[in-house]
Amino acid sequence: MWRDALLVAGKDLRIELRAKVALGQVAPFAVVVLLLFGLALGPAVGSGSVLFAAAAGLFWVTVLLATVLAVQRSFALESVDGASDGLRMSGLDPAGIFVGKAAAIASQLLLLEVLLAAVASVLFDRHLAGWAILAASAVAATVGLVALGTIYGVVSIGSRQRETLLPLLFFPMAAPVLLAATKAWDAALADAPGHALGWLDVLLVFAVAYVAIGTVAFGPLLEDA
Amino acid sequence: MTPVISLHEAVSLSDRFPLLAGVTLEVAPGEVVHLRGANGAGKSSLLRACAGLEQVVSGKAVVLGHDLTVDRQSVRRQVGLLAHSTFLYDDLTVEHNVRFAVRASRSGDDAVGATLAQLGLDGRLRETPVRRLSAGQRRRVALAVLVARRPRLWLLDEPHAGLDADGRDMLDDLVGRARDAGATVLVASHELERASAISDRTVTVAGGRILAVAPVAPVAAERPATLVVTHPLAAPRSPGSPGSPGSPGAPDASDASDAPDASDAPGETAGAPGATRDEATGATGAPVRAGAGRDVA
């Protein structure tokens, strides 16, 4: 499985390096969303501002939106010229395909989150404290979101309504991850690591659960796509 | 000898629409079989079922020893499918597309360079993203993927389509080499002359069933200009004969869409007793007739 996962992740990242969709479209989109939050809820002056208080939540909502775009892009690749049939004919382990596609999306999103955190810190006037917990919860939340997105991404391959179907399926199920990630970051930024660790545990549970479900369910879902 | 493909009354559905309506067919190792039939007859569905892409919901379907009614996935690594779609990634180069497919099938990518050169895809083309290629060049890349994977079973769906004259000759040569190397080949094609010339046997498909099976005589294959083409509905039939109207499983003569048209169905198909290509050439390969859904070859 791991060999197949590496092969698929390498293929998807190679395509991204050539097409630069994440760099040229997803990242600018996410930065614009943060800017719009700033315009709508600003200005960010001192700890009493709405932006200061909502910074973590706005950051993770932006990540959620970017995740949908990244997942849609990843599976759009498999919708062109029968590529999904090619993927099925390849003989790759479906679990390996799932892990590989999820890993490629996650690596792009983690880089995007670094950029967005820097932008949000400036726009929302929040000093990034508690780096270790911020990073750990970001990784756990990203794994959970991407695993869930990859499960629904393969469902949407064969659908004519895939642009709207994916967010409709994805957002409700991603809500617990959004909530836990926001709480973990809020606690970390408020210098309350004990509270943050509790939410980090929740994130880990969802990440493990969604990865496990995806590993098992991806094959049958790909067959039906 | 264990057949590479063994189908018995195989049925495949798309929703409720029958793609295969009881196909019975056996293909021996190293055999090249030409599938022919009108558009929508079920040729592509038969190839996709053999590739494990379409589910066989009833009947028996064993390909390369894998029971497709139980497990459709295990066979895929040993099967190469050249379909209407190329299965290529537009943003990857020619070489990366081929290497990805070969590594995925665990075939070993040491022969990728030679395969690309063999198909005229070396030099600058090798590093060109597939999105910049013409349709014919994309077809060559898809063919390169198939060749480099070294499958035991080749499933070719209209393989000559989109290729130039050199490409068509090269394809025929590749099929010959594959057969010499022990591979089995199923070719669905409307190009009767070319397909017959590289085939050992012709199978006529109509309405999702096997209508007739006939050997291709070498002389006939070499002299396609002497073919006698007879419309299948024009020739007299004896009542109750296999493949005739009213016989079990025979296609309804009133359903013209299921019957091969004149350009696609030489006389050895049902409804044209004895009117084979061999009549014209004097070759001895007598047709083996089959009732619908029966392979009696």
Polypeptide structure, described:
With 225 residues, chain A is mainly alpha-helical. Chain A is built from eight helices and no strands. Chain A has one domain. Chain B has helices at residues 43-50, 94-104, 112-118, 135-149, 165-180, 192-197, 218-222, 277-281; strands at 5-14, 17-27, 32-36, 56-63, 66-67, 79-82, 153-157, 184-188, 201-206, 209-215, 288-289. In chain B, strands 6-7-8-3-9-10-11 form a seven-stranded mixed beta sheet, sandwiched between helices. Chain B has a four-stranded antiparallel beta sheet with strand order 2-1-4-5, covered by helices on one side. In chain B, strand 1 and strand 2 (17-27) form a beta hairpin. Chain A binds chain B through residues 4, 7, 11, 14-15, 18-19, 77, 80-83, 85-86, 88-92, 94, 219, 223, and chain B through 51-53, 72-73, 76-77, 79, 81, 83-92, 96, 100-101, 103-106, 129.
Bin the helical content of chain A: over 70%
CATH architecture of chain B: 3-Layer(aba) Sandwich
Pick out the low-confidence regions of chain A.
Answer: none
Q: How many DSSP E strands of chain A?
A: 0
Output the structural class of chain B: alpha/beta
Radius of gyration of chain B: 19 Å
Give me the Rg of chain A, rounded.
18 Å
Q: Write down the secondary-structure element order of chain A.
A: HHHHHHHH
Number of domains of chain B: 1
Strand content of chain B: 15-25%
Shape of chain A: globular
Question: What order do the helices and strands of chain B follow?
Answer: EEEHEEEHHHEHEHEEHHE
CATH C-level of chain B:
Alpha Beta
Mean pLDDT of chain B: 75
Count of separate structural domains of chain A: 1
